[in-house]
Amino acid sequence: MKLKLLFFFIFLSQFIFSQDFQTKKADIYFAKTYYTKAIPLYEEALKNDTPTQTLLNLADAYTYTYQVQKAASLYQKILARDPKLMDEKHLFMYLQTLKASGNEQKANETASALSENKTAHKENLNYLENVAALGERFQIKNLPLNTAASEFGGTFYRDQLVFAATKKETSLLEKIYYWNNHPYLDLYQIALDSVTKSTNTKVFSDEINSKLHESNAVFTTDGKTVYFTRNNYLNGKLKRDDQKVTQLQIYKAELIDGKWKNISSLPINSDEFSNEHPALSPDGKTLYFASNRPGGFGSFDIYQVNTNNFSDPENLGAVINTKHKEQFPFIDDKGNLYFSSDGHPGFGFLDVFIAKPSNNGFGKPDNVGFPVNSGYDDFAYVVNTSTQEGFFSSNRPSGKGSDDIYHFKETQPLMIEDCYQLIVGTVRDKHTNELLSNASVNLILDNEEIQKLITDEKGVFNFKILCNNNYKITASKKAYTSDSTFVKTNGKRKLQHERTLYLQSFEKLEEIKKEQEKQAIAQAEKDKKEAIARAEQEKKKAEEKAKREAAEKEIQKKKRIAKIAETEKDIIKKDNEYFIKTEPIYFDYDLWYMRKESRAKLQTIITLMKKYPKMQIEIGTHTDIRGNNKYNQELSQKRSNSVQEFLGENGIALSRIKATGYGEKFPIVYCETEEACNEEQHEINRRCEFKILNFE
To answer: For residues 48 and 664, which has the higher predicted lDDT (pLDDT)?
Structure first.
């Protein structure tokens, strides 16, 4: 058991030592920029607790060899594990790999979250959106000469295209460039008239090509002088800087008797920094080049120097150069500067830009757009302005190899514009629909007037407005009212909005006002008459309704009375009226006092009126014809009052009793004269009747 444990710990120690040795060896390769040798060693040493710095080196190596998806994934992991290690340089590399991976949205979101100047970041995104809106400005074609290795940096030389490529013929002892594990570069050439259909390339010059890199040549107009890029190697001697790195330098050679001779290093060169990618002005008096010399703005900047003595190279300044890389300059015959940069707003890694000449050098550069530019390195742009055709290089994945040369033809001018839409409108008289010229139309954004126009003779106005905004448009004219409308723009470019604003003349409004007042008076009068008619109609309806209700009420009342009369034997109906039947109540001649026997007879009245507490009655008393009418009237009233008083004394409210004396008006027995009737008949006429006025 002990032997097994000892073997395990020995094996574990050897394994750990092996991993540590691999990582250190990979670090050495990484420091020498031998990325293709460092990557497999880093990958073999990967484990869960791999130091973050090791992961960062591997992510950088992936980036430098354009394994962008692997690089982006590692950068994201490092950002989550140790954000402080992701400094500005590495955050920039992370964003570049995201773009090249096609994840522009995440790149933009990450950049926005990390940006200290969000306004500038937003402006850059808007700028790139405007560039992308141009669509494909070029027709491009991958040249047949491209291979699985590298071909790039084409330049015009007489009837030839001179370009850099990995050595076509190599031996077992050939030097390898371990950055990408390819042989070193040489200069080659191919006839321009067959470049789009031929693979017939040949070595440009055995005198210029060496065992190290040569690339990016440029020629004077007479074709007798060439400037090119090479490692710091001359006359068989290789020089390095203090870090043992061989820098790039620009060399000059002269064509003598058909051979390139007098190869020399330019005075601008140094063992401690690189100069590369020479370009000439049309007159040949100025050499442009890229350099990472001290005192620049960032990694590589673009400089210019006179070709007379190559003294005092001048940085092109902050308009052209950034804190990142600016390389591969080219000057066309109109003086326009083309170069590649990953510091200006681009679509990923190096993009091609153009800067037009100005009084102070060059103006602000613009991205030349798609499809020359992509998410990968796009560089070494050269153009023949007479044909708008040329070449550029790119390492985009759709190519044949590491770097490929593409032929292009520009088919659309570079006109970068903010997203805009159009307003086409008219101003009209609201009442006549007449088009109004010389009307003032204002365009307002965020409560601020940004443009003012006058309508033409046809009453027309036009505005060019930005996308994704809310605008207000107002129109006015002397002797007219004003009008306004709104326009909300979206992100669709060159969309046209049509608007019409209607103004009203004050003169017409006054006419309308008077007419309205007249109509108002007429209407008021009409309304008054109609109101009176409606009131009368309503009154009539109400009266008719009241009558119907009263009639119905009376019918119901009669029904109820009739029902009561049916159940009460002492209630009788006579001549459609109801009476309380009692034994006859008589009064002595010429007297109104009630007889004693009559009082007992009134008990029936008292009983019924207490049974029906809402019953109302009339006591009607009558006399015979003896005596005069006035006397008889007064006598009958006294008799009626006497009965009323008696009923009141027996608990019947006097308000329920109406006492009426009829005198001799309504006799039961008609007597022509006093003597015509006997006493008995006169007594019948002296009576008291109880008529029911109301049961409720």
So the answer is: 664
